[in-house]
Amino acid sequence: MDSLNLPPKYREMKSFWIYYSGEEVAPVPTIFIGGNHEASNYLWELYYGGWAAPNIYFLGFAGFVKFGKIRIGGLSGIYNAHNYCLGDHERSPYNENTIRSVYHVREYDAYKLMHLEELIDIFLSHDWPFGIADYANCNNLFATKKHFKDEIQQGTLGCKPAAQLLEKLKPSYCFSAQLHCKFTAVVEHEEGG
C-alpha cells in the first residue's frame, strides 16, 4: 500500500487481490495500462508488460500486443515535462517525490511506440492526448469540469507524447481515463478518413 500515490485513508484492499491470487479469474480477457494511482512497485516488475493476474494483461510502461486481429498499443503514466527526458531513477521504497515521479511518462517509452511500423486499432493512454479538445464541442465538458477551460486555453491539458502517438499510429479508437469524465472527440487522421 505504501507504493500507492493516494491519501492514506484510501489505501485499502479492494477486489483485485482476488484475481491476483488466482482465487478468481477475470471473466473476459482484460488489457490495461498504468496510471497515477496504481501500485507502482508491482507494475515496475512488469515493466515490459506481462500477466498481472490470470486473464489480466499489463501492457507495460509502453507496449503493443495483438489480440486476435486487433492491434492494441498503450502508454502508461501521466505526462510531466520535468521528468519526461530523465531516465527511471525511482526505486522502492518510494519517498515523497519518487512515489509521484515513478509513473511519469518517459521519452524512451514513447519513442519505442513511435517505432511501430504498422498502424494500430486501439491506443490506450492514461493522460488525454494534448490538443484533443480541438476535435470536439467542449461545452458539455466545461459544464462539469469548469477548470478545464483554463487549462485548454493555457495549453496545459493533456499529454504531448500521447498526441504524437495518436498522430503517428492512427488508431481507430483511443481511450484515456485520467480526467475522470466522459468526453468524445473525433480525430480525422487524413482528409475524409
From TrEMBL:
GO terms for biological process: mRNA splicing, via spliceosome. GO terms for cellular component: nucleus. This is Lariat debranching enzyme C-terminal domain-containing protein. It comes from Gossypium mustelinum. GO terms for molecular function: RNA lariat debranching enzyme activity. InterPro entries: Metallo-depent_PP-like (IPR029052). The lineage of its organism: Eukaryota, Viridiplantae, Streptophyta, Embryophyta, Tracheophyta.
